[in-house]
């Protein structure tokens, strides 16, 4: 769960922080315009060039991320490059501001510092999904110039540093609250999704065998029939022979084990696109697309032989189980196809069991 929550946070960062690249570049232009009359132009252009390169690196990282579209299992590998490029951009602002401010103009120093405070405030909103990144970004942006102000030992710079410390304390506490709230939100979302998936699974799966249940068989089967078009669909209905004797002689746990093993045997003999379900009791159903009724009967015969020849371990002994099969194929509705297959199954039971009976093709 922690892995999924962290992945959600990182995906949110990649989703919401791309505009911050352009905000950084635009703010950099404003700072250069502000300092242009009082600072060397080459110094300002050099600083902005470095800022532009870092923005380009971050932009390429975002483009690469959107192109790859990593899933939850691999998205965390994108955290480190994101963190590195973000810290690089933040340090360019924090250290760069100390380099480009004019030493003799307190007014320009204060204005540039206010720009940095604004950048830090923006970081709180943009990167709040990841508390460590938020604190690291704000620290890289504000601390270099705060230390520089301390070294000046003047009243106004010291007051600004004091205000910065109060801001950092507020950010630290607010970040903790936001982080906990976001963690809880993401965690609750995943728990609800897991609960929904579990409920969906229980509603469509047989609890004993893990196969689809009767409800799911009809719901999915109707979809398969609708999508078949002119293709031929076949229904195989299988019923274990003398299953009551197994329960009476070996006990219900042994009967449950037999049903589980039979389900696994059937799945092992069928194709991935075939629909297999436990319809109830010892009855199983298979819906599949075939080229002919003969092919469907051959598949049913393969299922019969697989079951007949594969013993089931029960309390250290081999228990051999057989089943009777009814097969029908056609283009009619699912209910009619099942009715024909069930009638064929009845004939197989009446004619001695452990056999395949095929209905006429409709």
Automatic annotation (TrEMBL):
Signal sequence residues: none
Group of enzyme by EC: transferase
Cofactor(s) annotated in UniProt: Mg(2+)
UniProt xrefs under CDD domains: GGDEF (cd01949)
One GO cellular component, as annotated: plasma membrane
Record protein name field: diguanylate cyclase
The organism's taxonomic lineage, starting at the top: Bacteria, Pseudomonadati, Pseudomonadota, Gammaproteobacteria, Chromatiales
Protein keywords: Membrane, Transmembrane, Transmembrane helix
UniProt keyword annotation of Transmembrane helix present: yes
GO biological-process terms attached to the record: cell adhesion involved in single-species biofilm formation; negative regulation of bacterial-type flagellum-dependent cell motility
Organism whose genome encodes this protein: Thiolapillus brandeum
């Amino acid at each position: 769960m922690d892995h999924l929550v962290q992945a959600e946070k990182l995906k949110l960062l990649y989703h919401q922080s791309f505009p911050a690249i352009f905000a950084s570049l635009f703010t950099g232009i404003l700072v250069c315009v502000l300092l242009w009359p009082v600072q060397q132009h080459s110094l300002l252009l050099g600083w902005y060039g470095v800022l532009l390169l870092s923005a380009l690196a971050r932009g390429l990282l975002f483009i690469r991320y959107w192109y790859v579209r990593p899933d939850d299992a691999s998205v965390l590998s994108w955290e480190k490059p994101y963190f590195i490029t973000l810290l690089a951009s933040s340090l360019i602002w924090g250290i760069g501001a100390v380099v480009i401010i004019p030493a003799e103009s307190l007014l320009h120093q204060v204005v540039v510092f206010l720009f940095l405070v604004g950048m830090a405030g923006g970081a709180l909103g943009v990167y709040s999904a990841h508390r460590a990144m938020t604190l690291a970004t704000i620290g890289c942006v504000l601390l270099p110039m705060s230390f520089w102000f301390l070294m000046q030992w003047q009243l106004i710079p010291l007051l600004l540093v004091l205000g910065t410390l109060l801001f950092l304390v507020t950010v630290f506490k607010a970040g903790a609250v936001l982080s906990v709230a976001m963690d809880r939100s993401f965690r609750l979302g995943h728990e609800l999704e897991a609960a929904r998936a579990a409920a969906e699974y229980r509603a469509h799966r047989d609890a004993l065998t893990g196969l689809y249940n009767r409800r799911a068989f009809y719901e999915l089967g109707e979809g398969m029939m609708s999508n078949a078009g002119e293709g031929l669909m076949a229904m195989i209905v299988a019923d274990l022979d003398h299953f009551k004797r197994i329960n009476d002689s070996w006990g219900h746990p042994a009967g449950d084990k037999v049903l589980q093993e039979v389900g696994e045997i059937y799945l092992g003999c069928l194709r991935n696109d075939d629909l297999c379900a436990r319809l109830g009791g010892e009855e199983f159903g298979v819906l599949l697309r075939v080229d002919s009724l003969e092919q469907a009967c051959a598949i049913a015969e393969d299922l019969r032989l697989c079951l007949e020849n594969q013993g089931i371990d029960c309390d250290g002994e081999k228990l051999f189980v057989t089943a009777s099969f009814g097969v029908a194929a056609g283009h009619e509705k699912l209910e009619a196809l099942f009715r024909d297959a069930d009638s064929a199954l009845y004939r197989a039971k009446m004619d001695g069991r452990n056999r395949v009976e095929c209905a006429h093709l409709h």
